[in-house]
Each structure stands twice: as structure tokens, then as C-alpha cells.
Amino acid sequence: MIEKPMDKEKRKGIKAEEMDQVKDAKMRDIFMAFFRIGMLGFGGGPSAIPLVEKEVVGRFKWMTLEDFGDTIALANTMPGPIATKLAGYIGYRVGGIMGCLSAMIASVIPTVILMIMMLTVLQTYKDIPWVQSMSNAVVPVVAVMLAVLTWSFIKQSKDSMGWLKAILLIVASIILLEVLGLHPGILIAVLIAAVFVPFKKKGGE
Amino acid sequence: MIYWQIFLAFFIPGILGYGGGPATIPLIEKEVVDRYGWLTTKEFSEVLALGNSLPGPIATKMAGYIGFTEGGILGSAIALFATIAPSLILMLALMAILMKYKESPQVKNISKVVKPVIAVLIGAMTLQFFMESRLLLGSLQTIIIMIVSLLMLEKWKVHPAIVIGLALVYGGLTGLI
């Protein structure tokens, strides 16, 4: 069959439209994936990692499990919140800058809005004695949550460097940070620099 | 000037905190309570408690809210940007290079070596909240609530949102009596 030029153009138009639709569907997928992760993950970003895996590797197959494992490992070598690093990076890989943005918005904005609404209500009534008593009772619970978090970081330190080194570093950090009042940023920067010093020596050999 | 301060207050924890959002909590506290005095320790604990009872990443919830109280919607957006952008840009830029060195022990060591420091920072915060709680509720009540919530959270695996909810109910009831 001989195609008329008009048909060709028409087809082109349809193709572009289809591609737009595919793109829109992809953006919607990215948004929904990270929206679900954001709304279902309690306990901060790190505890949401299994949910990210379920969406990204399981449901949408944007990454292989191995790829995902590498991404997590490398994301952990960089500072800052892990959930947004993952959302931004995976969103970017799947859908470019727009993908990055929709993953970001989906994982951050809904919970921030919830937070602002709830705390604004609390602030409005904070002078009523029983409301004050309510917020007082939460302080020890937060202390426990932080204690649990502290313990998990101590355990992680032990697992990766053994008790002796971990305790030495912890005691040194207590002295530097809490007794001498050194800014944590300086200590962290020095430690990271120390990691790379032997690396350079090896390179020179 | 407030917007610049908001940016710095969240930019610094964002680039120093290794180990995800929860690791940045003590660093955020250092900025917003100690340096700028935007919140008292107790107010910070309320924000943290409610943040923990809601889903989603904790660092951005805190940034979004504190940014909002200090600088409105623009403040909130700046705080979120400062929390997210630096580490994300770093990740996008360095991913290709790091993938090549992912087996290198040095790259693996970066996050390991920082963990004890984060442990100390969060530990110090725990102590601070414990002292604050003793001041507000007395030693006996503090210890009882702490033991009960520890058992619920760790032993019986009760959902954090429920534990916080129960603490709120308990506080409300004892406040009425």
C-alpha cells in the first residue's frame, strides 16, 4: 500500500500524542510511588527504604535489586536525608528533571502540610492547662525514641568497626563535642578527611 | 535576613548529617534551638514528637514546619530546599564517579566513621530531653512513662503514632484532674 504524505503526518501527530501520554503516565507512576512511600513510612526516611524497594524494584521494575542495593550503599556515603536523596535520584533516572521534581514533591509536601496543620492547631490551644499537660507527657516518649536511635547508631558503629574502635571514637567524640564544645561539623570533616589519607598513600605506591 | 538564616539553619545539618534524616535531628536542634533560639527545647520536642507520629521523612517535616513558623510559606520552601537540594545535587553529580569506586573500602568507610559521632550527638539530645522531662513532670513520672513507652515501642512493637497518641491522652487526662 502506498502511504499518502498526509497519513504519515497524521501518524506522526498520533505518535507524539502517544509519547506524551506515556510520559504523563510515567510521571503519574513516579508521583504515586513516592506518595505511597511518604504516606506509609513511619519513623523517618531510613525506615522507609523497604517501601522504596517494594515500589521501585517490585512494582514498577525501574531498577534491579542489585542496582537498588548499590544506590542505597552510595546514598549512605553522602550526607543529608536518605529518603529525599533516593526519591530525587530514582525520579531523575526514570523521568529526568521532571521525574526528579515529581518524586520530590510527592515524598515531601503532603507530610509537611499535615505537620503544619497539626502543629498550628496545637499552638493555638497551647495555653490551656490540659493541652500543656498533653505536650509535656510527650517529652519522655521522645527521649525514649531518641535513646533507641542512639543505641541503633552505637550498634551500627560496633558492627562496622568492632567494640574497641567504636567505644574509643565515641569517648573521643564525647570529650570533643560535649566537654570541649567543638562544632560537630569540624569533627565530621576531619574524620572523613582521615578516611582518605591512606587512600592517597596507596595510590602513590 | 531571616530567609538567609533559615537557609543556613537547614543547609548545615543537611550537609553534615550522615545516616539519613534522623541523624540530622541533633544538628537541626543545635541550629534552631541553640544558635537562633527560634524554639525552646520543649517546643522542639513537640515538633519532633508530632513529626514522629506522622509518616514520611522526618528531616523535611521538621524543616518544612520550622521554616513555616519563622518565614511563612517562603520560609518553609527555603528550609525544604536547604535540606534537600545540597545532598541531592551531590548525589546526582557524584553517582557516576562513586559507582566506579563502590567496592573501595574508603568509600564504604565514609559513613561508618561518622556513625559514632552521630551516636554521641543523639545521645546528648536524649539526655537533654530526659532532663527537660524531669523538670516538667518530675523524676518518678518521667521514668514510668519512659519505661512504659520503651516496652511498647521495642518489646511489643506498638506503632510510634499510637504510643505518642497514648502519651497525649495520658497528659490530657492528668492535666484535667
TrEMBL record, chain B:
It is found in: Cell membrane. The keyword Cell membrane applies. It is a multi-pass membrane protein. One of its GO terms (cellular component) is plasma membrane. Pfam families: Chromate_transp (PF02417). InterPro entries: CHR_Transporter (IPR052518), Chromate_transpt (IPR003370). One of its GO terms (molecular function) is chromate transmembrane transporter activity. Its main location: membrane. Keywords: Cell membrane, Membrane, Transmembrane, Transmembrane helix. The chain crosses the membrane at residues 7-28, 77-101, 136-153, 160-176. It comes from the Bacteria. Belongs to the chromate ion transporter (CHR) (TC 2.A.51) family. This is Chromate transporter. It comes from Lysinibacillus composti.
